[in-house]
Design goal:
CATH architecture of the largest domain in chain A: Beta Barrel
Largest interface: A-B, 132 and 133 residues
Helix content of chain A: 40-55%
Structural class of chain A: alpha+beta
Shape of chain A: globular
Subcellular location (chains A, B): Peroxisome
Distance between the termini of chain A: 31 Å
Bound molecules: flavin-adenine dinucleotide
CATH topology of the largest domain in chain A: Butyryl-CoA Dehydrogenase, subunit A, domain 2
Protein name (chains A, B): Acyl-coenzyme A oxidase
Oligomer: homodimer
InterPro entries (chains A, B): ACOX_C_alpha1, Acyl-CoA_ox_N, Acyl-CoA_Oxase/DH_mid-dom, Acyl-CoA_Oxase/DH_mid-dom_sf, Acyl-CoA_oxidase, Acyl-CoA_oxidase_C, AcylCo_DH-like_C, AcylCoA_DH/ox_N_sf
GO cellular component, one term (chains A, B): peroxisome
Number of domains of chain A: 3
Strand content of chain A: 5-15%
GO biological process, one term (chains A, B): lipid homeostasis
Chain lengths: 604, 604
Amino acid sequence: MYKNTLRKAAHTWKRIIKLRLSEQEASMLRFYVDELAFTDLHWGMFIPAIKGQGMEQRQQKWLPLAYKMQLIRCYAQTELGHGSNVQGLETTATFDPKSDEFIMNSPTLTSSKWWPGGLGKASTHGVVYARRLVDGKDHGVNGFIVQLQSFDDHSPLPGITVADIGMKFGNGAYNTMDNGVLRFDHVRIPRDQMLMRVSQVTREGKYVQSDVPRQLFYGTMVYVRQTIVANASCASSRAVCIATRYSAVRRQFGSQDDGPETQVIDYKTQQNKLFPLVVTAYAYRFVGEWLKWLYTDVTQRLQANDFSTLPEAHACTAGLKSLTTSTTADAIEECRKLCSGHGYLCSSGLPELFVVYVPACTYEGDNVVLLLQVARFLMKTVSQLGSGKQLVGTTACMGRVEHLLQCCSDVQQAEDWLKPTAILEAFEARAARMSVAYARNISKMPSQEEGFAELFSDVVETAVAHCQLIVVSKFIEKLKQGIPGKGVKEQLQILCNIYALFLLHKHQGEFLATGAITLKQASLASDQLRVLYAQACPNAIALVDAFNYTDHYLGSVLGRYDGNVYPNLYPKAWEEPLNDTVVPDGYHEYIRPMLKQQLRTVRL
Amino acid sequence: MYKNTLRKAAHTWKRIIKLRLSEQEASMLRFYVDELAFTDLHWGMFIPAIKGQGMEQRQQKWLPLAYKMQLIRCYAQTELGHGSNVQGLETTATFDPKSDEFIMNSPTLTSSKWWPGGLGKASTHGVVYARRLVDGKDHGVNGFIVQLQSFDDHSPLPGITVADIGMKFGNGAYNTMDNGVLRFDHVRIPRDQMLMRVSQVTREGKYVQSDVPRQLFYGTMVYVRQTIVANASCASSRAVCIATRYSAVRRQFGSQDDGPETQVIDYKTQQNKLFPLVVTAYAYRFVGEWLKWLYTDVTQRLQANDFSTLPEAHACTAGLKSLTTSTTADAIEECRKLCSGHGYLCSSGLPELFVVYVPACTYEGDNVVLLLQVARFLMKTVSQLGSGKQLVGTTACMGRVEHLLQCCSDVQQAEDWLKPTAILEAFEARAARMSVAYARNISKMPSQEEGFAELFSDVVETAVAHCQLIVVSKFIEKLKQGIPGKGVKEQLQILCNIYALFLLHKHQGEFLATGAITLKQASLASDQLRVLYAQACPNAIALVDAFNYTDHYLGSVLGRYDGNVYPNLYPKAWEEPLNDTVVPDGYHEYIRPMLKQQLRTVRL
Ligand SMILES: Cc1cc2nc3c(=O)[nH]c(=O)nc-3n(C[C@H](O)[C@H](O)[C@H](O)COP(=O)(O)OP(=O)(O)OC[C@H]3O[C@@H](n4cnc5c(N)ncnc54)[C@H](O)[C@@H]3O)c2cc1C
Ligand SMILES: Cc1cc2nc3c(=O)[nH]c(=O)nc-3n(C[C@H](O)[C@H](O)[C@H](O)COP(=O)(O)OP(=O)(O)OC[C@H]3O[C@@H](n4cnc5c(N)ncnc54)[C@H](O)[C@@H]3O)c2cc1C
């Protein structure tokens, strides 16, 4: 399998050169090949890291080689003992002023690099994160470019141990990727292979902080995480496309007068589970587009040395990465369950989609840890309220906090819930009240840190509320723009309302507990939601067709565009290798003796 | 892989004969082998089906053969086109009075049997469900014992096509089971191979209903589903055992004065996610024990021709099957995520545990479809209130419906939530009020069926509320019994309170919306929950050690009893076949040409 992946990756690269694709086109092509490979890390992490943290002259050496694929890289940060806590990494890079080199070493078992994709077998080089020891002092963790395998025969260089870490979740899935383990035994590399944009070590062995602010590092994170949010929308739209199409094909129960049975998509329970997932796929697409804009905005500001929006942008992408990946993983699995029995077959496409997707909840920041960062940011925002500090971006609404703490929703009948202002105010009030309440509870504790530790989990709910507010508000903003296509805007309006009211129903407890809405209003919201589902139902198929996936790309017999599910599912069975023989291998050895009661005499 | 499974199954059987194990002991042994095999269906479904539906004299023919494993059976109900809707099955069994035979046939593509475990390769016989056509009339679906493969060479008998249906979710997982496809082309079987306990076809071709009531059929379902609930507790306790132990080994962040970092189990967010899962594993064990009792009770009543408790017992097991399997599947995946990166490795044991477990949400009744049955039963119960009809079992509390609709919880301070009466009343009030409210809403609709269809999904929430009430109340009942072991009862009391208050917090919206509790009381419940987590924390490891699983059975490097995670994870990597060679297969063909920029000239 791994060899086949190598073949595909090489083939893709060949096409990229041949067609002289631009960086963006090439990334599209890799997207459509749709199989994880070492090259993904090369492009997705290694190059952004060098771009973000390398010095100008260094970039000039490594980037062209990387772009031309004359070296293959991985991003080697996580170790056996440390993932989330990057500052706790144990690999050391000790500067030796005599030879002007760093000595890379793995002093403990837990310092072994563990997980980097592409590291196990393919990479020639890695950006390796290690603790800088200069002149006896520990200067914290930084990236180094290290050659791992020889250009001659691809064997590991002296002092380097490298291997694949073994089977992961799923069948094909992530196992096309050679996540690896790496150990150094005093390996020497030239000083200038340290990524020196933010701080430098001089020839004399002096550690110097450069005038480039550390925050630059956050720029790369914003970039990588916004691509993850965009991927969430892709993955969820694939899953809902399969489940929705199959729900229209599948009929079960309810046949009258010998007519056909009911399409399962017509059951309210099915709609109730499926439609929120469909609209979420749309919501994530729009928030993804907005994040892309945010990244550009932040980058431009960084270039103008304006760091004012960075903390908010960072919190916001961290939170949205967490929210979108968690819900998307759940959505894929829910779609699989909505296809019931046949969803459990690999040919439904859903099992592998789930398994390849789900680590997005873990890599680039464990989702819980990210929410804690958002929560810290929110607590800080609350503590600065009234201090005159400018509130930017998604926290701007906190400027009206007085109002939000007191306002009463003016929803009086179900249709009032269709008004964007009503929705927005309810979400803002809930988020603001939760933030303020928890900040207040924390302040009652002996120390802020203790309070934060004690109330950790309430704080996570607050962070989620804030992130949901962002998604809802960006969906509403999107609808304020001109949207081409006859009737499209009206449809999107329905989706937007479903998204908001679905969340409102799901988190009813929080809306009620904060007093953002009343019991009566909660019940009106549920009524309105039912009406909206009924409006969306006739267009369900059109809504998922609009994602415009080819059958080949979807890779699902259940999600076929033409709906010819059964005639295609049946012959698929015969591709199973077990069916190569009618009587299974092992019959004579194990089954027959059991049937003939001759087991006692058989050696197993 | 499949062959290896055959080997293990044969070996297990050999031990069973050699040691002369009883039926119960044998089932224990298969449990510990812990790999799915065709034999599971043989014992788990086939034999109960014959016991439940076969005639006495028939049982005498087939059961001894089956017990001795002189034939291997599968349970062939589901078809390509029909799973949930058993009455819609299309396979036909046409009675031919001339030859006193049934002719089994698969008239359509969708009538192909599809999914039965053990059917694909191993089974010699199957209980095949088919539509009886007798004298031109359709008498509905019934089971037939059909020989599928020859005793001589295991080849399919004439007119029979049988094969494996192909790859399923996961890597090893369920793929050790040969779920199969089966088609009949006018295959003749003797009349007496129809399972005739409930209805019979005479030699003359007359269809006769026997005096054994149809409800008997439900007895088998209650049996099979209660074993599924027991399994839910096993699976969830395995998962939480792994995640809890690893959470105590894993340290991340929070090191002070160069001391060790914080064990992640000490983070409130981790506790908040993990502890509810631990207590749920306990709760399901107790409700499982109670269901076992219920099955015995129902069986005894059936033998005495007392069917009065059957509908309630049936609804109750259906609901609990749905609730426990859905939450257990989610719990396993949550445990995997709580182990973050390393949880994604197969060596953590969690990926395969999930994948093997999750179809329990689908087989033996799709979980949503089951909840709808519960809901129908609840609506019926509500409609009969005041009619004088006796309320039995778990609906007995509805006898106090007047009170439950009006009562106000008397909780005034956080500790009041420790009182079983307070908890029970809140759960009873919520469930009763939801049932009554939805029954009322349905009655406003033009017809009951329409109302039911329209409000389907609210009704599902009502069913869940009822099932949670059952679990909570059985936990509380358990604690009223004497429990051996010093301090054990006190610990279980904490777990019981955590379980109840966790659910209360999670479904806060429903408790508030029904007015079962007030805002203030909801907030007190959350405060008390925090206190309970702190009390449970020091005993977390003891609580999972108490499940008493061996390392071998757990099959998880992260969940090792001795906590030696890293030294065992590291060498595991080297077992990966990719590591058999240092330079990967495919290097010369694909990687080297890419690096050397010679791709243009290479044929891929
Ligand atoms: C498929 C896959 C691909 C990967 N690819 C790469 C790669 O290319 N390069 C690379 O360097 N790494 C890679 N990784 C590693 C990944 O980045 C880490 O697994 C991730 O950062 C999470 O860290 P961890 O596993 O140490 O989790 P841990 O931090 O150990 O988390 C364990 C548990 O502790 C909790 N926790 C931790 N800290 C706190 C806290 N302060 N407060 C509360 N709770 C806390 C977490 O929420 C979690 O529940 C990959 C991982 C996977 C699964
Ligand atoms: C691993 C595995 C092992 C199995 N082993 C066996 C076996 O040994 N023998 C055997 O006979 N079968 C077996 N099965 C088949 C299994 O019993 C069926 O898949 C199961 O009964 C569900 O039926 P379905 O797949 O037809 O779902 P469907 O009924 O097609 O469900 C599709 C969707 O429609 C919804 N839906 C259906 N009806 C309604 C309704 N009335 N109202 C609202 N919503 C509805 C469902 O909730 C679901 O979301 C197995 C399946 C699996 C996955």
